[in-house]
Amino acid sequence: MKLFIKFDFNAICKKVLETRLSELNIKYKILAFGEVELLEKVPTETYQLLTSSLDEYGIEIVENQKSILIQKIKDAIIDMVFNEDSTINVKSSVYLSEKLGHSYGYLSNLFSEVTYTSIENFIIIQKIEYTKQLLLSTDLSLTEIAFKLNYSSVAHLSTQFKNSTGITPSAFQRIITKRRNMAQQ
Amino acid sequence: MPNDYIHIILADDDEDDRLFFTDAFDELNMSTKVNTFNDGVELMDYLLCEEAILPQVLFLDLNMPKKNGIECLNEIKSNSKMADIAIAIYSTSASEEDIEETFVLGANIYIKKPSSFKQLKKVLSEVVSMNWQYHTNGLNKDNFLMRL
Asked: Do B133 and A125 touch (CB under 8 A)?
């Protein structure tokens, strides 16, 4: 005898999710197809149990993998900027795709989709933050900082600083110094 | 969690400016919740009450009746409960003195009110996304200065 069966994938997935989430005592809300909101912080152990119990059904938690990859991209960029020796003469796109094992196009799209900014812009933000930090905590001149951060010229760094923050490096330094003096009074 | 709303407040006595501001955010689709207040007194009353949801970014007009932007800025900066709020000055003035003074007093962002709606949307989205970078990447907020 043969049975012919019709599935409602949506209903099946929903039922499986509900059962598994309740078994683990996780408070949740099913938002839409393919989206679940966890209402409380879930301990790592429980989270792993959830991942493996859903795995049996071929259900995979996607969003979280994305955010792990995003974090890896960010960490790699921060390492690249703050650890300037590691990347001399390597293009950042090449560096990132080699380090993370994905094409740059994929990384770049994913990054823009999730973080409200692009990889290129994120790198600039980090470089400018590092510049600020160096300006305030060391005696290095802007020229020396530009050299340290692999800028082709001090003008290039200065322009990028101004474009990114709207103020010049020297105005930045002056304002923060005034603030600190005020706080001491 | 990424699904959380970004809370935004604007204090401005000009009704048209408040309206443009909320319209701009409505069109931006950035999962923001925007609250507006008509003057500095209303704003501070709200921020100081127990159940207030403190915003991630607070936009302050400088010239307001009853209590002006600078007075609000000073009160907020001297209250440790509000230390995490990024302050954006939102003013028609672009005098270098105003800009530098408010930065020194602790403002993070200075915006000269844009003349077109399109420009306003661009500026607001830049502010929110830059603040988001500081917020999510553990950047040092003491060094957060931006002028638009």
From this structure: yes
* Chain B residue with Cα closest to A173: B143
The CATH H-level (homologous superfamily) assignment of domain B6-147 is Response regulator (3.40.50.2300)
Contact by Cβ (8 Å): A84, A149: yes
CA separation, residue A153 to residues A81, B131, B138 (Å): 17, 28, 29
Structural domain includes residue A1: no
pTM score above 0.80: no
Q: Is there a single domain that holds both residue A51 and residue A89?
A: no
Q: How far is B145 from chain A (nearest CA, A)?
A: 6
Tens digit of each residue's pLDDT (9 = 90 or more) over B76-85: 999 999 988 9
Sheet with B32-37, side-by-side order of all strands: B32-37, B6-11, B57-60, B86-91, B109-112, B146-147
Chain B residue numbers touching A117 (CB-CB < 8 A): 129, 132-133
pLDDT in tens, B101-120: 999 999 999 999 999 999 99
What distance in Å separates the CA atoms of residue B103 and residue B97, rounded to the nearest whole number? 10
Residue A41 is classified by DSSP as P
